[in-house]
């Protein structure tokens, strides 16, 4: 039986889709990326939309490489290990 204090993630969701408390690390990481290294917002959203439909997305991480997809997608030189973007 799952207790109320257990944290459960949506199997096919990103960190930004989780509760506010689960987004702390995401916001912290994204805030320190230099502007010249950041993906523009439109491309970032396009990448994440592709990741949301991928069977390798498990609890906000890429099963193919182990990264948090939002971190990889936020960086200009980031690449999908499955070559989907």
Structure summary:
This protein has helices at 24-32, 41-52, 69-74, and strands spanning 57-58, 61-62. With 85 residues, it is mainly alpha-helical.
What key attributes describe this structure?
globular, mainly alpha, single chain, 85 residues, disordered N terminus
Architecture blueprint of SSEs:
Elements: H1 24-32, H2 41-52, E1 57-58, E2 61-62, H3 69-74
Antiparallel strand pairs: 1-2
Shape: globular
Question: Into how many domains do the coordinates divide?
Answer: 1
Radius of gyration: 13 Å
Count the E strands. 2
Question: How many helical stretches?
Answer: 3
User: Ends: how far apart?
Assistant: 39 Å
Fraction of residues in β-strands: under 5%
- The overall pLDDT, averaged over residues, is 83
Helix fraction? Answer: 25-40%
Question: From the helix content, strand content and strand pairing, which structural class follows?
Answer: mainly alpha
Subunit arrangement of the protein? single chain
User: Which residue ranges are poorly predicted, with pLDDT under 50 across at least 5 consecutive positions?
Assistant: 1-5
Main sheet makeup: 2 strands, antiparallel
| Helix-strand pattern | HHEEH
Strand order of the largest sheet: 1-2
Walk me through what this model shows.
This protein has 85 residues and is mainly alpha-helical. It has one domain. Helices cover 32% and strands 5% of the residues. The longest helix has 12 residues. The termini are far apart.
